[in-house]
């Protein structure tokens, strides 16, 4: 069982560069989300999607774009990387109801 | 609106001692509550969840948590700490369905031999 797969695992970007963090799940979950994890701040929701073609902003959406063309994939795009976006990014998927969120292994991003 | 407060960003216990990690929540709807564990350089793994059934919830690795509505608490406990329990623990709250999950800031548990 692959679950939630994130790529890449590590990435270093220069300020101003753009990139896409990939997330794929094979559990047919409708709900997917992106979080960033920073020391002392826990996980903060960036964007989420309740199904293909539907996305919405979370707590800290600025500087990030998402799209959801299929149930399986939910990529996160950094438009113009800034040092403040240095963080660990987690993708999660969830079935409806009182179910748990399943997390990927994370992408560790450094912006220099 | 919903929120989670975890008291204590760092907790140290001796091996074999009781583990108690505190979590208080706020929710405008009946909450679903979760505890997740994160080992270094890994994603989050579900320990246990409360979904309005039994108030005492048992999870993996010997952990359990009790939902106390009157205290708006969902503290995590384990009778006897093991070295392998050293990790960061996150409490989370959701309104259920496709409601967003809100996480606490985490508590790092150190187990001293």
Amount of helix of chain A: under 10%
Q: What is the approximate shape of chain B?
A: globular
The low-confidence runs of chain B, each spanning 5 or more residues with pLDDT under 50, are none
What percent strand of chain B?
Answer: over 45%
Specify Rg of chain B, calculated over alpha carbons: 13 Å
Largest binding interface between chains: A-B, 26 and 24 residues
SSE pattern of chain A, N- to C-terminal? EEEEEEEEEEE
Biggest sheet features of chain A: 7 strands, mixed
Oligomeric state as shown: heterodimer
Query: Uncertain segments of chain A of ≥5 residues (pLDDT<50)?
Result: none
Order of helices and strands of chain B: EEEEEEEEEEE
SS content category of chain B: mainly beta
The whole-number mean of residue pLDDT values of chain A reads: 93
Main beta-sheet strand count, sense and barrel state of chain B:
6 strands, mixed
Approximate helicity band of chain B: under 10%
> How many DSSP E strands of chain B?
11
Termini separation of chain B comes to 41 Å
Roughly how many Å apart are the termini of chain A? 35 Å
Shape of chain A: globular
Q: Please, could you describe this protein's structure?
A:
The complex is a heterodimer of chains A (112) and B (113). Chain A is mostly beta strands and 112 residues long. Chain A contains no helices and 11 strands. In chain A, strands 2, 4, 5, 6, 9, 10 and 11 form a 7-stranded mixed beta sheet that branches. In chain A, strands 1-3-8-7 form a 4-stranded antiparallel beta sheet, with no helix packed on it. Chain B has no helices and 11 strands. Helix content of chain B is 0%, strand content 58%. At the A-B interface, strand 4, strand 5 and strand 9 of A face strand 5 and strand 10 of B.
